[in-house]
Each structure stands twice: as structure tokens, then as C-alpha cells.
Amino acid sequence: MDVLQFIITVILITASGALAPGPLFFATISYGAKSGAKSGLIFSIAHTLVEFTLVMLLAVGLLTISNEPVVKLTIGVIGGVALIVFGLFQIKSLFTPEIKNQVYKEPSHKHLFIVGSVFTALNPYFILWWLTVGSQLIIMALEIAAFFGVLFMYLCHVWMDYVWLTGTAYFAKRGSNVIGSKGYHVVVAVFGFILIYFGLSFLIDALKLI
């Protein structure tokens, strides 16, 4: 895989994760309705600190074993299956009234940075995503340019969190109903199918190692 293909893969896969409704997303709407884009920006910074730490820890752990065929096969299969499952659940969530009409109750945390950190670190979807799908991306990045490849991968990933969370908070302040918009559901559905496509691709590539 060349660098351009890698960039496109990272952007498409991580955009799907960023768009998925989760605790931090609903907290962004709740706080954004009061403080606007500032809350989304602070949430993004807190999210980045937690996420980058996790990514580098995974990269250190995978560096010495990433070239082992059994490791590539295991992570490829697990990551592929996880992508397909995430994609299916993402599409299914669009038909669940509880998700479409959910109103997030503002948590007791007063400091936006703490809220962003906690809602990131304690999100099971976030942890599972990096342990499965994210690990596959990290291995691909290590193969391209070792730790510099991981840093490059993360830069290709993290800017979308800033755009999405800051934009969501901004529009929440303006009174836009992001959750209820038809355009949002169309985009989530499209990226759900993209997740499934990449999941199948990861599975096929991994099974070629057998």
C-alpha cells in the first residue's frame, strides 16, 4: 500500500468512528448548546491526549512483533470482523428510536477538559476500536515508517475529531438538531457501508497469509 492509499484508508475508516454517536458526542451537544465551539475544541484536546497515549502504547507493544505472520493474521482477522460489526451496528443505530431521539443529560463534571478525558477513556467503543481496527492501522503505519509512520497516521486521523466535535458544538449553540437531520443519517449510513467494505478487505488480506 502506498502513502496516498494509506491516507485515504485512514481518513475513511476513522471518519466512520468519529461520526458514530457516543458519550463524548452527546456531551458535546449538551455543553455546546451553552458554550458553543469552545466546548468542542476543549473536548477535542482532552480526547487527543487520552487517545495519543493509547496509540503510542499500542505502537510500542506492536513494534517488535508486527512483522510476525501470526500477528498480522490475528489482528487482520479481528480488525476485519470488528469493522464489519461496527459498520452493521452503525447502520442499525439509524433505525433505533432511542438513538435518534436521545437527549443527553449534562453530567455533573464542570470542567470541560475532565469531561472530555473521562468520556473518552471510559468509552468501551473507543477502547475496543483501537484494540482491533486501530491496531491494524498502527501495524500498517509501522510498516511504512516505524514510529514516524504512526505519528503520520495519527495526524491523518485526529484532525477529524477537531472538525467534528468543534463543528457539532458550534451548531448546537445555533440550535441545529444534528441528531435529527436527514443528512447526518445518510452520511452515517454511507460510512457504515464503508466500514463493512474495509472489514472485508482486511479479512481477505489477512487470510492470504494462511
Describe the structure.
The chain is mainly α. The protein has one domain. It has helices at 3-19, 23-35, 37-63, 69-93, 97-100, 112-121, 124-173, 182-207. Helix 4 (69-93) packs across helix 7. The longest helix is centred in the last third of the chain and has 50 residues, at 124-173. The two termini are 20 Å apart. Residues 98-109 have low confidence and may be disordered.
Please write out the topology:
Elements (H helix, E strand, L loop, with lengths): L2 H17 L3 H13 L1 H27 L5 H25 L3 H4 L11 H10 L2 H50 L8 H26 L3
Helix pairs in contact: 1-7, 1-8, 2-3, 2-6, 2-7, 3-6, 3-7, 4-7, 4-8
List keywords for this structure.
8 helices, mainly alpha, globular, 210 residues
